[in-house]
């Protein structure tokens, strides 16, 4: 496995400065935002799509530093009733898939999206309770009329461009659990898999090691985000795990994102790395920094230091003892 970083946290640096910083930190790969929520501070997608020379120059800057691009990422909501952001998200995703194919970047990361509750709705609607049965009926309508048709089309586009789609299992979107991930994959395309981020699993009560086993047995993990979550049980008792307080309310929130090792033990992280290797994932572990009480530099460096102690970087030897 290799260690990388989602470079959106270094958006204030130029492309070259960011690459130098990442290389100096001892990393192997970069995950680069191309639009929607992550922005595109390190990737002028339209310029790169138009000009092969610029694509080659871009890749050379990465490869000359001994780095690779693990994924392009354009997390948005291509199903939202908001016409403007739906189009922005959809266009960014389609362009990113095309660019990834041209540049031989194997994975495009994104969200599944969440539609409204009917045609002409104003806001997305994320049903998470089976009763009253209105919610179950709504969920079925969303899957059959919005989610599956859209991802069948995107899956075919990904196959055409020889690209894999890493959907991040994230709250607020229809695909947020191993079950919903595999359900969508089964109904659409094997080009669609997971960008697995344990920080979004812990607070749902999902064991990331178990999720790795479930998804990896189906060859459905295409990328991995390294971000931790601290769960404050006292605050859970007050607000529950579906806490709607803003992320800035760190003292009272039920859970907060943390740098690797600051929410769960390094034994937990070692178990995840072992599960990834055991069940066939031998690609990039990409650091994502969203720690509200650490600076970018401190949170990033803490994650690098901690992950370097548990990452499995070499191939196993023959079992000389067996």
Automatic annotation (TrEMBL):
It comes from the Bacteria. The keyword Protein biosynthesis does not apply. Residues 19-298 form the Xylose isomerase-like TIM barrel domain. GO terms for molecular function: isomerase activity. InterPro entries: IolE/XylAMocC-like, Xyl_isomerase-like_sf, Xyl_isomerase-like_TIM-brl. Keywords: Isomerase. Transmembrane segments: none annotated. Signal peptide: none annotated. The keyword Isomerase applies. Pfam families: AP_endonuc_2. This is Sugar phosphate isomerase/epimerase. It comes from Saliterribacillus persicus. The lineage of its organism: Bacteria, Bacillati, Bacillota, Bacilli, Bacillales.
